[in-house]
Design a protein that fits this description.
CATH superfamily: Membrane associated eicosanoid/glutathione metabolism-like domain
CATH topology: Four Helix Bundle (Hemerythrin (Met), subunit A)
Oligomer: single chain
Number of strands: 0
Radius of gyration: 18 Å
Order of helices and strands: HHHHH
């Protein structure tokens, strides 16, 4: 049963991979359009210079890809501690898969509609799932 806790990591890796493909599928055509309009993309080489250059639909995909390298890094670390300590149980599995589903939902919302309050609510729910994993593992490991 302990190895089952590693499956959510693979899911999140797959989600990151899909978002990377979608990012390039949207960004490359948008960049080619900008170049056709005479924009020198080399002058926009630093990420801080890209804000507002691409259409919002293109930037949202890139933003989401970047988000998948922020909070989820803690998720990966906590999952590895749970696995290494042999603490996998149904609570941890449900929380881990809840986190994954919520992050998938967050990605879909951000890419398709980007409604800030809905996206924020899903983000906070994912933090609750992550907090359950973190705090529960702390209680099992330290206390």
């Amino acid at each position: 049963m302990n190895d089952l806790i590693l499956q959510p990591i693979l899911f999140m890796g797959l989600l990151s991979f899909v978002m990377m493909l979608l990012m390039y599928a949207t960004r490359i055509p948008a960049a080619k359009r900008l170049e056709a309009e005479g924009v020198d993309l080399q002058k926009l080489a630093h990420p801080s210079q890209l804000g507002g250059v691409f259409p919002s639909s293109v930037e949202r995909v890139a933003d989401n890809y970047n988000h998948l390298w922020e909070q989820p890094t803690l998720f990966y670390a906590v999952i590895m501690v749970i696995w290494a300590q042999g603490h996998t149980d149904m609570v941890h599995l449900y929380a881990a898969w809840s986190y994954c589903i919520l992050r998938l939902l967050h990605s879909v919302i951000q890419v398709l509609v980007n409604h800030v309050w809905i996206r924020f609510s899903v983000f906070m729910l994912s933090w609750i799932a992550l907090a359950v994993l973190l705090l529960r593992e702390i209680s099992l490991t330290v206390l």
